[in-house]
Amino acid sequence: MGADGKTRSFTLPSQIADVPGTEGWESMYPYYTRFQPEDDQRFWFYNAMHFPEPMPAFDALTAEVPYEGLGAFTTRIFAFPTTMGIEHRIVNGRIYITANPVTDPAEIQRRLAIFQERAGFYYENWDRLFREWKVRLESLIRELESIKVPSLPEFDDSEVVMKAKGLGQNHFVRENFHRVIELFSKMWHHHFEMLMLGYGAYMVFFDFCKRAFPETADQTVARMVAGIEVLMFRPDDELKRLAKLAIEYGVDDLFNSDCEAKKVLDEMRVRGEAGRRWLAELDKSREPWFNMSTGDGFYHHHLSWNEDLSVPFAALPRYVEQLQRGESLERPTERLKEERERIIAEYRELLRSEQERQAFDQMLGLCHLVFPFVENHKFYCEHWFTSLFFKKVREFGALLVAYGVLAEASDVFHLQYVEIESALADVSLAWAGGGKPLGAAHWRPIIEERKRIIEKLKEWSPPPALGPIPSQINDPALQMLWGITSETLESWSSTAEAGHENEIVGFAASPGVVEGVARVLRNVNDIGQIREGEILVCPVTAPSWGPVFGKIKAAVSDIGGTMSHAAIVAREYGLPAVVGTGQATQRIKTGQRLRVDGNRGIVWILD
Amino acid sequence: MTLTNPNLLSRFAEIGINDRLTVGGKGASLGELVRAGIRVPPGCVVTTAAFERFLSAIDPAGSIRREIEQLTADDLAGCIRVGAEVRARLESATLPEDLQEKIGAHYEELQVAASDFGCGEPVAIRSSATSEDSADASFAGLQDTYLWVRGVDSVIEHVRKCWASLYAVESVIYRRRLKLPEQGLAMGVVIQRMIDSRCSGVMFTRSPNSGDRSVVVVEASWGLGSAVVSGEVTPDKYVVGKITGEIIGRTVSTKLRLHRPNPAGAGVIDEQVPAEQQNAPCLDEDELHALVDTAKLVERHYGCPQDIEWAIARDLPPGENIFLLQSRPETVWASKDTAPVAAPRGKPFDHVFSLLSRGAGKK
After folding, report:
1. From the list B214, B343, B351, which residue is nearest A355 (CB)?
2. 0.95 surpassed by pTM
3. Which residue has the higher pLDDT, B52 or A540?
4. Which chain B residues touch A109 with a CB distance below 8 Å?
5. Which of A214, A350, A356 sits opposite B210 (nearest CB)?
6. How far is A484 from chain B (nearest CA, A)?
């Protein structure tokens, strides 16, 4: 409520106009993702953290399936007392979400009884369950890899007869595509199986610290929680290992500043034993560590390092050069550990009683118990599994190309998954009937139109939030993940209303103050443009940009909270970072001079 | 009363917090800071023994104390009259010769020491109460401070003024109301080199706003600290993490007034801050961190949160220019510390249950 008693509001969903030239964008997404008139009564925010770009038709599945999994675990399985799941809507290609809170005291009480029993079991057996979880995820990944996309040859395999299988290959077009989608759904269920409980542990510790040390920065609390050895650093560590080996084997001359992956690989092959050994080591690193999305695993075009070697190969020359200069590339893990232990010990010492210290130990202990899952699940799910998932769907796209339905394999991502099924059925019928599929005439114009619409939608600047500003917002998950609090909303709305022209306020994610030149990147695939010493300004910084963090001076993002990956990685690299600004990519232009104050969460445009 | 320190005059380096009864709280705390290795402008304390010696020299029969003890708290006219007479007597009497010599010699010593600081000969004269708690100490008359005093005659004159303040009418009435004995009533007087400070202020090793012990809050304004302490100026304010050193908050205020030494010689003048400095921050990041480091050292030395007055000398290089003028234990939040923030539970994850069920009620 505003001071005048009226409810203050962001733009309402119904007030959002179509972007000219994108009429008909709705056909890319399922009917249940459209804003309804009554949605004007609810508060929504743009999930730029996961979905910083307009969604291609197929990629919208990376919102639908995760929210199915998330909601299942919070609403139905663990029965979180105060929160149910997340609802999402798509407008102009962008994903807006809202949380469904439980506010009735009796209802909270009823859910609590179930929650205690079920969540208690997971917390009690956390380490074992996480060990088993990893086994399960790796087996899902192997299963996904083993799925074959039928080639539909002129005559089916003789095995169908000799082993009396009784099923034609075209059956497996349908079955195997289903299996790919089903495995994706399974992965996302497992993703949320333990995640929200992990965030619950974080929330408890943050809440305690906020009460015991009301003025302490969130980032300081986060430093106490964060583990040092996390999988997300491993791919970057592999690059460092390969740089070291290049020098050891005497092939480091191939890594100069404008080296291209393909050229290096070709030249390695003619470098005899040394080149062969280096390539063998590269292969070792690639599985699984190069199954690293260049984004966060939510878009088909965020290729993995394995599919696009230019990202890792952009980092290699720099590492080689640093080693040649005699610099160490080792992450100072011992120092980081000692520093973390010092901070913990000194905060603990400041507590006023032994009782408080014991509570502190319990809460922090619980955070350290859950941290490996919360941090490492990302590699298994969003990177390893998802990279292979998109690759597999692309193979079905190739089948559609082979039958003339699509012009190129990646066009498949401009179809909703049910539309892909339909196109595959067309091919299956044609193969069986001996005729020709009719899809080319049907789908190609649709795909061309959708590609054009997506390009056009990229020009739209989505408002960070829609609908009435809630009088208070204290859903800790929103704060942990998206950095959304009453204060954030206040700053978003005041920036929109009046605005200090040169000042952008966000969350202080990693300490330090620097000045430098901005590089605004809306699309992950442009990360090659970053120059040494620039300040990265982006919708969301993904951890897989590790190598980039070695180059930049500071990071600024539109979305993200204290425990977002950008914040964790920036702290690890010792770079100032301001996250959750809402609008940095809209207000900052590449080339402008900025001052980034990671202590206070403020970015100034100096030009 | 037994006096553990019969000296008439003690240098800061010779005293500590346990000498409160002979040198007063302020003097004892300055001595303690020197012991802790903190940079404090050099000086000494004229002890309670010196006061006793002065009083018995001008009033060997003890008539002053008897006369006061015969007053009652509701005899306002009597308290005013007797207080004024006693003050006039103390302010005009000559000090015993050995005491005069001692003060003179120490003042000379300060000149030598002062040459290190390259800024003249002015001193501050401050009363230093012996009473234990701040409520007592705040009774009127015991907080006298005279700044930028120069020359031995003027120093002696102001020492007498501090002593005379024991007989300010409010003080007399206060003592009569509580029927406190006059015998043994005394105070120390601090004589301390003055720092011509570019900026100065206060800092708290516990946030005055929230009681947070993990931050140091620093307030700073231009010129002498008296402008901040008296509340004539809204100082710049910084909040710094005690453990990580990060700057959590920074508010640069418009600072309109400053106190500085009277260029004509003695005393302090109050003037407008030059326009270009009004909105400029008083401290750079290095100075802020140096202040916070000092604050942490003091807190560690005392073992409890402290309220500290500090100054940064105008003409000294970084690393040598920070001085503390006073440190006393924080009392406001200390008295509020009651309920613990959380207590241990049966299982660590029980904490999750209680957080995630806030707002739960019975069916």
Report:
1. B343
2. no
3. B52
4. 357, 360-363
5. A214
6. 18
d(CA A164, CA A167): 9
State the first-to-last Cα distance of chain B, in angstroms, to the nearest integer.
68
Contact between A113 and A120 (Cβ < 8 Å) = no
**Nearest residue of B to residue A207, measured between CA atoms:** B355
Element of type H or E holding A554: strand A554-557
Residue B35 has pLDDT above 70, yes or no: yes
A215's tokens? 């003025």
Cross-chain Cβ contact B348/A366 below 8 Å: yes
Measured in degrees and rounded to the nearest 5, phi and psi for residue B331 equal: -120, -25
Q: Of A115, A216, A356, which is closest to B241 when you measure between CB atoms?
A: A216
Is the separation of the CB atoms in A464 and A583 below 8 Å? Answer: yes
* Residue B291 in this model has a pLDDT that exceeds 70: yes
Contacts of B360 in chain A (CB under 8 A): 81, 105, 108-109, 112
CA angle, corner B214, sides to B221 and B132, nearest 5?
70
Q: Report pLDDT digits (tens) over A484-511.
A: 777 777 777 765 544 467 888 877 788 8
Own/partner contacts of B27-30, CB < 8 Å, gap of 24 or more, are B27/B128, B27/B188, B27/B190, B28/B128, B29/B326, B29/B327, B29/B328, B30/B190, B30/B192, B30/B326
Write the pLDDT tens digit of every residue in A311-327. Answer: 888 888 889 998 999 98
Q: Which of A386, A344, A380 is nearest to A365 (CA)?
A: A344
Q: What is the DSSP string of B190-248?
A: EEEEPP-EEEEEEEESS-TTT--TTEEEEEEEEB-THHHHTT-S--EEEEEETTT--EE
Q: Report the C-alpha gap between A410 and A377 in whole angstroms.
A: 27
- The two tokens of residue B41 are 């402008």
Mutate to test the interface with A, among B243, B337, B338 (most CBs of A within 10 A): B243
